[in-house]
Amino acid sequence: MTKSVLIEKVTERIGSLTRKQTEIVVETVFESIKEALIRGEKIEIRGFGNFKPKQRRARRARNPKTGEKVDVPAKRVLHFKVGKALREAMNPK
Q1: Count of domains in the chain?
Q2: Domain check: are 92 and 58 in the same one?
Q3: Together in a domain, 90 and 77
Q4: How far, in Å, are 2, 38, 80 from residue 86 at the CA level?
Q5: What is the pLDDT of residue 84?
Q6: Cβ contacts of 9 within 8 Å, gap of 6 or more
Q7: What is the span of the domain harbouring residue 37?
Q8: What percent of the chain has pLDDT over 90?
Q9: pLDDT (tens digit per residue) in 24-57
Q10: Can you give the pTM of this predicted structure?
Q11: How far is CA 2 from CA 23, 49, 65, 74, in A?
Q12: What is the distance between the alpha carbons of residues 40 and 55, in angstroms, rounded to a whole number?
């Protein structure tokens, strides 16, 4: 699903907002999430999941093509943990 498809679905569901208004709402939500993650905050959306930035340590790796040792610098990565409700909806018993 793309952002434009999401905007269309929200517009259809709400009905009282125009597509442009819905686009502003969706953009605002995504921007707020992005800004919080950049600040290092955890995002918890009940029933969906958690987004949490984590720090990866620097390490030595190997270039698979040449076999040469390469230093990989430390970096921040995003970790997503699916929520219980979504996990159960995807894997019904």
Answers
A1: 2
A2: yes
A3: yes
A4: 19, 25, 13
A5: 93
A6: none
A7: 1-41
A8: 94
A9: 999 999 999 999 999 999 999 999 999 999 999 9
A10: 0.78
A11: 13, 19, 34, 31
A12: 10
d(CA 14, CA 1): 19
Whole-angstrom distance, CA of residue 39 vs CA of residue 60: 28
Q: Which of 74, 73, 77, 72 is nearest to 40 (CA)?
A: 77
> Is-contact 76 53, C-beta < 8 A?
yes
Specify whether 46 is located in the same domain as 35.
no
Answer with the one of 41, 57, 72 that is the final residue of a domain: 41
CATH of the domain at 59: 4.10.520.10
pLDDT at 48: 95
Q: 30 and 62: one domain? A: no
Cα–Cα distance measured from residue 43 to residue 77, given in angstroms and rounded to the nearest whole number: 14
Tokens of 89: 């909806």
